[in-house]
Amino acid sequence: MIPLTTLHLAHLPPDLAVHIALCRELQNAAFLRAQLLAGNAEFEYALLDAGSILSPTHLHAAIFRAATDACTGRLKSHNLHAEIVFALSANNNIAESFRKFGLTPQTTNLIIVKLTPASSAGTAAERAAAMAVGAHLETHVQGRWERFGEGSCVAVGNVRRIGGVYKLGKGVGKRGDGRGRGRAREREGGNGVEGGSEDEEARERAEMEVAILGLMALRGAS
């Protein structure tokens, strides 16, 4: 079974379970895109390019926004999972949000989100839903599975790309090469890195996160 993270977000209906998986070295992006474009209900997931996600909090904020809009009848896209992709955006252009945050033919690291009803956390119904989601993904998504978390976001999140998407200032998140901790990458011969301690890089990522969450929250609701 794949390492699936299941959680409940505060202030959302308690019967809504959130399942998150991370697939690295994705091998069948074209197949998955075809299922989305065909509207195949069996593939109703939020499929996100992992390079566009800075942190778990970044993703959780989008899930919360989408679920809240669904509960209040304010969805802008065609379903809840598409709304998660849209909720990551700082503007109201749905097509642009899918180009910047969603699965593309070039995606190599994929975050998958599925929301399911469950009577409450830890129940047999929730466990059964998680097992069904995991089994379906394991069958149809080809790649190397890792557990989603803060460390995986640091490893696969492209800091420079994310900063560009949100039009952040050049001083925000400048130390990272976009694919993990700057100094560690420098030692390994990674892309151009300015160096700096892990504490400094963590602080810069935290500053980026605050700025991004603010931009997402300010996106017009009309």
Descriptive overview:
With 222 residues, this protein is an alpha+beta fold. Helix content is 45%, strand content 12%. The protein has nine helices and five strands. Strands 1, 2, 3, 4 and 5 form a five-stranded antiparallel sheet that branches. β1 (5-7) and β2 (16-24) form a beta hairpin. α2 (56-71) packs across α3 (80-87) and α2 (56-71) packs parallel to α9. It is globular and about 45 Å long. The N and C termini lie far apart (41 Å).
Write a compact overview of the structure shown.
By secondary structure, this protein is α+β, with helices and mostly antiparallel strands. It is built from 9 helices and 5 strands; from the N terminus they run E-E-H-E-H-H-H-E-H-E-H-H-H-H. It has helices at residues 29-37, 56-71, 80-87, 94-101, 124-140, 150-156, 159-165, 182-187, 198-218, and strands at 5-7, 16-24, 46-49, 110-117, 144-146.
Instruction: Output the structural class.
Output: alpha+beta
What radius of gyration results from the CA coordinates?
Answer: 17 Å
Mean of residue pLDDT values? 88
**What helical percentage do the residues reach?**
40-55%
Sequence of secondary-structure elements: EEHEHHHEHEHHHH
Q: Please state the overall shape, judged from the principal axes of the Cα atoms.
A: globular
Number of strands: 5
The low-pLDDT segments are 181-194
User: What percentage of the residues does DSSP assign to strands (E)?
Assistant: 5-15%
Distance between the termini: 41 Å
